[in-house]
Amino acid sequence: MKPYDFLVLGGGSAGFNAARVAVSLGLRTAIVDGAPDLGGLCILRGCMPSKTLLYMADVLHLAQKGKTFGLKIPSARADMKAIHARKKKLIGEFAAYRQQALSSGKFDLIRAHARFLDPHTVELSDGRTLRAKHILIGTGSKVSVPPVPGLAESKFWTSDDVLDLDFIPRSVIVLGGGIVACELAQFLRRIGSRVVLVQRSPQILREHSADASAVVQQAFVDEGIDLFAGTKLQRVTTDRRGVTVEFLHDGKQVTRRAAHLFNALGREPNTAALNLAAAGIRARPNGQIVTNRWQKTSAPHIYAGGDCSGPAEIVHIAIQQGELAARHAAGVKKLKPVDWSLLLNVVFTDPQLATIGRLERELDEAGTPYLTASYPFNDHGKSILMDANYGYVKVIAEPKRGRLLGAEIVGKDAGELIHLFSGPLAMKATVFDLLRAPWYHPTLAEIITYPLEEIADALAKS
């Protein structure tokens, strides 16, 4: 068979978009994907199903707070059969659209798994071999199982299992405090499960600031989640009645039992079966593929993007990386690498947590001077009348002209509000530029004007 110009391993967000761009640039392209269902993690087992369930839990939570708003709502309970059916219908539609695009005929779709035989050749699980001039690895990630005694032997749930529930679990112990752990722990609590969350790091959402994670942690505790941070897991034991987790917390031995165990201790790059060494591809000890700013691996004609290469496991980043790799492989001139100074991140807990740009910890480590100002949701008219009092909005700017460097929002609809900074940051706008724009009252959006004004006043006095 004639070698492909561009061969993609994995049909998720990075792979699909890389193939789409490669074809548009005239490259003979194929995607190799042996997953039982096409669509990738985001559509099938990640962003879309989780946010579908989280939104339904948000609606339930508001209904249960009816008395707060002067509403007589006698009863509001989760009907998991109906919730599950709605999720399946919506995700089925999303997946069907992606599967149609994958099967459009614009590129070859090969339903198999692949492993490298040499830098230009892969062997498929059906026995065939393929050769390609350029290759993109976009094989995503998988659930990791840390070496906690008894964990691997326990019948733990993964996020896949939680997203596919059609009943309300009586009780669940959640191991982990990252995005997946926090989002789904709150979902389980809101549908009626008793939830224990055990996090090894001193704070949940450890990739975010201590202030922001503290707000989410307080909301969790207020909703009845039994939360332990700064722990050392010792062992997991299971029997026919459920699971027992033993851990150290504040120097004391703690034991918790539940009907089910949810392992949300992280994910790892799904690269172990690729035989990367045969292609001369360098990877970190955890399997993450090392790439340069053009997504090129240590084998110069092979690229990687998305969760398998990182550094951010975020869909829009995976898309950018895949598209960049395809354009670079096609020889497109004047390309620009992914701009990490515009990194955008959202955690869909309630309150939500969202960040963009360069944040205080990064600036402190780099020794970069900055100004910052924040304003709380519990002193803002629109959020008060919505009974959305958790959190704050924080703006970070450089101290000479007030150019925006970043922002952090934890609070109601933070994932939507953070986009108020996307365009301005990309355009290198200043706090004064944003203050020239109109801000309607009363809206949640106008809350960002308070820290903007504080920084503007500080600059005017300097």
CATH fold call of the largest domain: FAD/NAD(P)-binding domain
What is the approximate shape? globular
- Radius of gyration equals 24 Å
User: What is the CATH homologous superfamily assignment of the largest domain?
Assistant: FAD/NAD(P)-binding domain
User: Percent range for helical residues?
Assistant: 25-40%
In the CATH hierarchy, what is the architecture of the largest domain at level 2?
3-Layer(bba) Sandwich
* Overall number of domains: 3
Beta-strand proportion: 15-25%
Helix/strand class:
alpha/beta
Number of helices: 15
Number of strands: 21
Question: Can you summarize the main beta sheet?
Answer: 7 strands, mixed
Instruction: Indicate the CATH class of the largest domain.
Output: Alpha Beta
Distance between the termini: 69 Å
Nearest-integer average pLDDT: 95
Q: List low-confidence stretches.
A: none
